[in-house]
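TODO from last week: model Mannosylglycerate hydrolase.
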Amino acid sequence: MKNKKVYIISHSHWDREWYLPYEQHHMRLIRLMDDLLEIFETNPDFNSFHLDGQTIILDDYLQVRPEKKEAVERAIKNGKLRIGPFYILQDDFLISSEANTRNTLIGLEESKKWGNPVMLGYFPDTFGNMGQTPQMMKEAGIKAAAFGRGVKPTGFNNAVINDEKYASQFSEMWWEGPDSTKIFGLLFANWYSNGNEIPTTKKEAIEFWEKKLADANQYASTDHLLMMNGVDHQPVQKDVTQAIALANELYPDIEFIHSNFDDYLAAVMSDLPDNLSTVTGELTSQETDGWYTLANTASARIYIKQKNTEVQRQLENVTEPLATMAYDMTKSYPHDELRYAWKTLMQNHPHDSICGCSVDEVHREMMARFDKALEVGKYLVDEATLALTSNIDTSNLPTNSKPFVVFNTAGVEKNEVIETTIEWMRRPFSEGKPNELYDELKQIAETLNEFHVVDSDGTIIPSELVTVDVAFDYDLPTDRFRIPYMAIFVTIRLSLESFNEISWQSFGLVEGKSQTSDKTLFDKNTQTIENDYVKVAIQNNGLIDITNKETNITYPSGLIFENVGDVGNEYIFKQPENDIPLYAHDFPTTINVITDTPLVCEVLIEQQMMIPLSAEDLLQEEMKAVIEMRDRQAQRSKDLGTLTLKTTLRVEKNNRQIKCHTEFDNQMRDHRLRVLFPTGLATETHVAESIFEVVERPNTVQNKHWENPTNPQHQHSFVALRDGKNGITISNYGLNEYEILTNNTIAVTLLRAVGELGDWGYFPTPEAQCIGKQSVDFAIEVTTENTLFDSYKRAQSFQIPTTVKQTTHHTGVLATNYQFLSIDGKQFALTALKRQEFGEDIITRGFNLSNQTSSTLNLEINEYTPFEANMIEEFKENTSVSTTIEPAKIQTLRWKKK
C-alpha cells in the first residue's frame, strides 16, 4: 500500500499586466490557451489545467480567438479547464468591500455560464489577506481558501508558540474571521511553484523530487501532498504526464497523479488531524521580519488610488442607488451597462495593477479604464436623475424660482455645505449668433448679485452666492438633435442640515437677498476658526490646535507635513540610512483667509519646504545592479529645491469635520510626504476601515522578529484612535496608507515617489516619481463615545458627493421630499443599494462597525419587505431578519415589492 499521494496541479499564475504592458502579457496568454486546447484534445492522461481562479482570462482569450469559443466550452464541460470562482485576482485591501463582493458575484455567475466553478477562494499572490475572507467565502458557498502570503509556516517540528497568532506548523489550517466564521485554509508554504518544471530524465527527476518531497513533507498535515506545476506566466508543461509516469517508477511507495483542486481538497479535508492551528482575522505577514508585507504598495502611485476611489464611489454610492430609486419610474434597471462598468473597473483591480507596482505603460492604460467606467456611471446618473426629477412634484416651489433637487445617496445623514451651479437663463443658438448671445447674457449677468434658496415650504435655506457667469452648454435630447446654447449660470453655497440618508429634497433658487447671519466663522484676532462643535487655532508656523467644544479637550500642534527620502521601490519604502526628516512648519509659512462667511471658512496655509531634488546618483547604479533595497547606501542629494505646500483648511457651519485640501507641484524624486496628527491618547490599539470591517490593530509591532523600522498599514476611508472616551478620526480620499508613530501620532501618506518597480529585476518606472501637480484630501474629526460610530460613517460619506439635478415646475407622482431608505442603527454602515443582478428585487448590504452586537438595527423601504440573503443575492432559508446585527456581521437583504 502506498504511503503518500502527490497531487500535481498544472496552472499558470496569470498577471494580466505587470513588468510588461498588458498586450505583451495578452499575446503570451493566447499562446498558452492555444497550447492547452491542443493538449486537451491530444493527451487523455492530462487531467486538467487550473485557470488561476479568474474568468477574465476567457474574455481576454476569446477577444482574439472568438472562433475558439466552442473548444473552450467543451474543455470546461469536460473538466479539462478549471475556472472560477472570481472575475479577477484582486488586491484585497486596496479595493472596496463592494468591489471584493462584485468580483466574486460576477466571477461565479460567469463561471456557471460555462460550467462548474472551482469552489476555492483562490488568493495565491495577494499582498495580504482580508480578515473577513472566511465570512465572505462562506456567504458565497465556498468552504476553503488558498493563499501564498500572510501566515508564517513553521513546520511540524517547530511547534507554534502561544504568542505566534499568525503562524502555522502545517500548510493546512483553520481560518477564523472576526464574526467567528471558520473555513479551511491552505497555505502555499513552498509557494505556488513548488512543482514547477518537473524533469523527465531520471537523474534530474531524483534530484527534483528528493528536495520537493522533503519541502512538502515539512509542512503537510496529511499524506496528501500538493505540487503546483506552474508559476507566473508559466507556459504549460506539455510533458508533465511523462514526468509523472517517471516519478511513479522512481518512487513505488508514493502515488503521483495529475490532479485538480476539487479532488485534492476533497481528499485532504477528509483526512485532517485534530491539531491544526487556527489563524484569525486579517493575515498580513505579522509574524515576519516586516520587510516584505508589501503594504507600501498602498502608497505607490497614489493618483491611481484616488481615481479608484472616485470610480468606486460613483458606481456604488451614486449610480446604483439613484438607478434603484428611479426603477419605479423607468421600469428598467441598467444591468448590462453597470456590469460593463464594473468589469471595466475591475480590470484595474488585480494586485499588480491597483497596487501601482507595474511598469508605467500599465498604469497609463489603467487611467483610461478608470475614465471609461466613470463616464458610464455619470451617464447612468443623468438618466436616473432625469427620470426622478421629471416625476418629483415641484409645483409647490415659488413660480419665480429655478427648481432643483438634491440627492443624498450616502448611508448617513449629511450636515455640510455644498456648492452647486444652477442655470438661470439661456439663449439657444437658434436665436442668434453665439457671440451676440454671449454679450447679451453677460450684460444681464452683471446686474445679478443677490440670490437665495427656499425649500418646498417657502422657508429660506442658508445659502450664499459664489459666482454668476455666462458659458456655453448644450442638451442632448433622446428624440431630436442636440441643442447648443449660451446661459447664465449661478453658483451657490447651500447648507444641508439633518439631510436624511438615501433621500432627496427639492429647493428653488430665487433672485433676491438671502437672510444668512452676518456672523462669520473666523476670528482674525485669535486666528481661530470656530463652529458649534470644534475650534481650530492656527499657529503662525501652520500647525493647528483642535479643541473639541463638547469636552474642551485640545489636541495641539497637528497638521505636521513630514518629508523623508525613499530609496525603495513601488513595493517597499526604504528611508536612506541616517536620513533626517524635514518638517514644513520649520520653513517659511504664510496664512491667508480666502473665504469667511457665516456658512464656510477657508484658510490657506502656504509652506515652502526646501528638500533634496532626488537621491544621489548612487541610487541609479544600485537599482541597475539590482541591489536589494535594504542594502542600498544611497543618500539624498545635497541639491535642494522648493516644494510649496498649499493647504486649505475648511470648516463648515454645521459640520463636525475639519476638511483639508493640500496641493503641491512635485518636481522632486525619491522621497515620501506624509501628514502627521499627534494625539497623545493613552491607548495601545487603533482601528481602521478595512473590507466589511473596522479592524482593531496594535499601535506597535508585537512580533519579536520584526526588523523593518516602519509598520505601514492599509485603510479605506479612515483611521481612528480613541482612549475609551475621546478620540480622533482621520478621513481620507484615496490615501490608503497610514502608520501609528510614537506619542500615538497618526501618519497618513500623501505621496511616495520612487523610480523602479522592484522585485526580481530592474524595471525603471519614471512615472512612479509622480512628477507634476498633485492634490490630496483628508479630514479630521474629534470624537466622544457618543459620536464615535457617526464619525466612521461621516468618514465614509466624506468620499460620497451629493448629487444635484435642476428641473422645472411641474406636478408629479413622487413626493417633493422623500426618504427612500431609512437606517436606524448606529453601528451599521451601508455599502450597497442596488437591484438584484438581472432582477428587480432591491439589494441592501452593510456591516457592523464593531465587534459587539448592535442594540438595534432597522432598515425600511416603503412598500418593500426584506429577506435575509447571502452575498451572491440568494435567499437564506429559514432565516428571519433580525432587529440587531451580530459582531462584525455582513448583512445582505433582498427586498421584495409588497
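Done. Residues 302-370 form a domain with the Substrate Binding Domain Of Dnak; Chain:A; Domain 2 fold (CATH 1.20.1270.50).
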